[in-house]
Amino acid sequence: MGTDRKTITLTDQQDAWISAQIQAGQDTNDSEAIRDPIRLENERRSETETIRSALIEGEQSGEPAPFDFAAFKRRKTGRHG
């Protein structure tokens, strides 16, 4: 994986947050402190897309069938006691 050098501008508050992350041992340097939230956001977006896809698949699967909870409970009790 390649890397690209970027120049960014931070507010004093953002810079203080990064310094606090490093001082607390959360990250080892400025780059890690900046990359970590980006990595987390990428994971969150991926999870959101997975859920969105599952919802769309469910919506397109047709009308729901009625669910008989009493029958479900009897089956599970019969199998697992």
UniProtKB/TrEMBL annotation:
<keyword id="KW-1277">Toxin-antitoxin system</keyword>
<dbReference type="InterPro" id="IPR038296">
    <property type="entry name" value="ParD_sf"/>
</dbReference>
<dbReference type="Pfam" id="PF03693">
    <property type="entry name" value="ParD_antitoxin"/>
</dbReference>
<comment type="similarity">
    <text>Belongs to the ParD antitoxin family.</text>
</comment>
<protein>
    <submittedName>
        <fullName>Type II toxin-antitoxin system ParD family antitoxin</fullName>
    </submittedName>
</protein>
<dbReference type="InterPro" id="IPR022789">
    <property type="entry name" value="ParD"/>
</dbReference>
<dbReference type="GO" id="GO:0006355">
    <property type="term" value="P:regulation of DNA-templated transcription"/>
</dbReference>
<dbReference type="InterPro" id="IPR010985">
    <property type="entry name" value="Ribbon_hlx_hlx"/>
</dbReference>
